[in-house]
Amino acid sequence: MELPVRMLFANILVEAGIDHVFGMPGGNTPFLFDGLYDQQDNIRTVLARHEGGAACMADMYGRITGKPALLMGQGAWICSSGVYGILESYLAGVPMIIIADTSDYFNLPLHGPYQNGTGDYGAVDFPNIMKSTTKFTTVANNANEFLHGLRLAIKHATTGRPGPACVLIKWNVPFENVDPELISPKLYPLEGHLNTSPPCISKSDADAIADLLIDAENPVMAVGRGVHSARAYEEVQEIAELLGMPVATSYMGKSAIAETHDCAVGTMGALGQKTANDIITAADLIFAVGTCLAPDNTKWLSPDFINPDKQKIIQIDIEPLNTGWSFPVEMGITSDAKLALKEILSSIKTKSPKLDAKKRIAELQKKKTELKYFNDPCRFADNVPLAPERVVKELNDVVTADDIVVLDAGNNRIWMAHHFQTKKAGQLYAAGGAAAIGYGVTASLAAQMLYADKRVVCVSGDGGFMMHLYVMEMARQYELPITYVILNNSCLGNVMDYQVPDRRIATEYPTANFTEIAKAFGFDAIRVEKPDELHDALKKALDSSKPFLVEAIVDNYPHFKVMG
Question: What is the pLDDT of residues 436-479, one digit of tens each?
Fold first, then answer.
């Protein structure tokens, strides 16, 4: 019996466990959205107000759940505005499914209809745009190709190192009917295509790594977003405690271990803590897990920071090309982080190392105190305009271990990365693949949807928030009690920091009043200009059951003024 392709499309989503769709109907995708109408008990369809915001929300969904959401809309805008968030997923390794149309209007691609994206003369080339920003892209010319392409996109998005996968559809596809029994090649149950175990370390390699870790005098674990992706929090902490080994994180790995833990030494690299950086430089062995040791996390590959001529490096990554990419390694292992750490942990316990972990941790605590770990005096500044570090410190005081924190891009993320101390593993979400300004403003909406029983706070700058004012209407519409904290310094701070002071251009502007804007959207809002007002304002916002905005008027001095 023939069935509408839009119904079969929705059935595949349900079969794959994809329960959230973010997007805006347009082109011929409204006819696919129609297929979601009868699946509202299984699939939540979220109307975003901008394709870029929808992509950021889909990215956040993938980070939180470990499975893909669907981003869907008209090709012209998904392949332009939507790439704003798709780039983050691609570079950060986050699963996402994308469906967009080629807008060829009744199969007229050779005659240049407006908005056409087939790549023919007179058209934009959507397939090449998406192939350059996704793991997998295919063009479906008919229902048969669409159904197979969608299932393959789901497989590619979730297998190995995750990432976005795209199906572009021709105009006729949503209107077709097809008999599932006559599709060729046959559509087998989707589960059989997804039953692929992630790569795993061998026992012999786990034993060899255990020996290297036990024999090292000053080992350090450097962990990245791969630990978040694998949910390897317990294993990271247990190995650290067993060996008395410090744990540093990349920027996207921040909160892979609670930064209040005795073994935690904070973030590494250009945005990181002196504690983490000093310990990594002094280590004789660097155990890198779920991080490719990218330049921004390694002081631009400086040999004064990490020197493989003097340090042994063990690197574990789910993508084999990432091991030994930036630095030569003693051992490079292709494995899911959680599976690898479990095997290594088991091997270490079997070997019963004769080392004094408690003594190592005590010495580490002493060093952390000496280096003022999360205790920099600038965090207590009484300046007016407010010191950004003081805002972060006050936020740190009111945020609990059960709260979720989402960072944006720009200088505000630098203050947060450097001065906000996470209290629980997995507490903080930070975009760093592309790190588009405004990412957190939109992505945090998805976080609040998924963490309905938790308090979600997003920290943003005035530049990023101004790009996405529509998020306040979405928060009202979907009844999301999110808290936005805006560091308002009336400039694009991170860009301005690199301009000659007397030659600044296109980075400064009049101070916006976000408090009044927020109130017009139905938010509760407070503008804070004095340090002694911060604590109460932030606490009131986080204790509210309604959307709330705290606007902190901060100084615009360069981010490197206090970080060096």
Answer: 999 999 999 999 999 999 999 999 999 999 999 999 999 999 99
Residue from 212, 160, 198, 196 nearest 340 by CA: 198
Residue 329: its H or E element: none
Beta-sheet strands, E only, within 79-127: 96-101
Question: For all residues of the chain together, what is the average pLDDT?
Answer: 96
Residue at token pair 């962990």: 223
**CA dihedral angle for residue 277, residue 280, residue 281, residue 285, rounded to 10 degrees:** -170
Calculate Rg over the CA atoms of the chain.
Answer: 25
Residue whose structure tokens are 């002094």: 282
Q: Please give the domain boundaries of the chain with CATH numbers for all domains.
A: 3-194 (3.40.50.970), 203-370 (3.40.50.1220), 377-561 (3.40.50.970)
How do residues 118-137 score in pLDDT, each as one tens digit?
999 999 999 999 999 999 99
Q: How far apart are the first and last CA of the chain?
A: 69
Element spanning 102, H or E:
none
**What is the separation of C-alpha 389 from the centre of its chain, rounded to a whole number of angstroms?**
23
Give me 235's structure tokens.
Answer: 């294993």
Taking CA atoms, 93 is separated from 159, 224, 230, 434, in Å, by 11, 11, 12, 11
